[in-house]
Write a structure and sequence with these properties.
Layout lengths: L7 E4 H6 L1 H8 L4 E5 L2 E6 L2 H25 L13
Parallel strand pairs: 1-2
Antiparallel strand pairs: 2-3
């Protein structure tokens, strides 16, 4: 059985009938959208989605920093006068 990762859930039919009421009921929380009792999508408020994208971008930048730190021994030191 697939785990539902939200406090609220609704069927696709419920979502189609009245999406605004569903969002109001969830009060800013994520909503698992179910199809045949299996989660097929998660509906999240815009602010939460933006925060997730920001966190993902921070993570990706951190991975770039780690990769470049590993390359540091290969770097050639120069002074400003050399430039």
């Amino acid at each position: 059985m697939q785990q539902i990762l939200a406090s609220f859930s609704a069927s696709i039919s419920e979502l189609k009938k009245n999406p605004t009421a569903l969002l109001n009921k969830a009060d800013g929380e994520a909503i698992a959208i179910l199809n045949h009792n299996l989660p097929t999508a998660y509906l999240v408020p815009a602010g939460v989605y933006e925060l997730l994208l920001s966190k993902l971008e921070d993570y990706e930048l951190g991975e770039i920093v780690k990769a470049r730190q590993a390359e540091k021994p290969l770097a050639i030191e120069v002074t400003l006068d050399d430039l």
